[in-house]
């Protein structure tokens, strides 16, 4: 896949605080690349450096759709973490103003704005002042403003925060559809379930450093991969003796068995001992949420499960 943006060896300090260390990744045409990490990890600092809002101490940011030169602002869409539109301006006026800043033809912008307002359940709001909108509605307008000019690279910093589940789904569908049409998307979000459903690849930062980078599937394979949840009264020692069980967590009669990586799930299930008490049994892949917690809290229990067998 064609690379749209390359971030190379970014370093950034604020006084004596090192916010980014050797941050390198790329974003490709038609993919959703998630940038993840706990609060204060360095996601927004990375994005602000990409957007030229601040400059790195060292490292480079290359926009391949602009021969690697300056930021091609008219080809980039950006939804910043800090929301804010001019309050006393009408919705359509602000959208057309934003499109004009990107040199996008006004008639086309108007047509697209009406289409998107309808899609985002804001039909008829074009002449309403921004200050009269709810927070979620304002966010939808700002999101529309970031995509109206058909950007090739779209950077979304926490697009889902403050949205109700219906609006989250609308955003999710639109972001996916933009990627399918070829937009390169860099998405920062704390909603792991949404990221898991949407992203193609992910880059996770902790304390300003890379901890994970790859496709969702590769990342899961690198960690514990599968877990088996058994509802039934079983002795921990019995469960620990089952082959390929790396770790057991128990809560009353529910046991979670984390399996070694590369385990073949159907074979593993077939070889479970007949003596096992099972009222209910589920075999799932571990979730991105679990990986995130494991990494962010420095437990590294899931990674050990992977490395034990590596
Ligand atoms: N302008 C600034 N001046 C000083 N320190 C800053 C500044 N901006 C960010 N930092 C520090 O840099 C680190 C990274 O912050 P950043 O906002 O990039 O984190 P984040 O991953 O986006 O966090 P969150 O999920 O909370 O939005 C933090 O320690 C933060 O305090």
List keywords for this structure.
310 residues; alpha/beta; Rossmann fold; Alpha-Beta Plaits; 2 domains; six-stranded mixed sheet; four-stranded antiparallel sheet; 11 helices; binds adenosine-5'-triphosphate
**Percentage of residues in DSSP E strands:** 25-35%
Query: Could you list the spans in which at least 5 consecutive residues all have pLDDT below 50?
Result: none
CATH class annotation of the largest domain: Alpha Beta
Structural domains: how many: 2
CATH fold node name of the largest domain: Rossmann fold
Distance between the termini: 29 Å
Number of E-type strands: 13
Total number of helical segments? 11
The hetero molecules present are: adenosine-5'-triphosphate
Keywords: ATP-binding, Nucleotide-binding, Transport
Family: Belongs to the ABC transporter superfamily.
GO molecular function: ATP binding
Protein name: ABC transporter ATP-binding protein
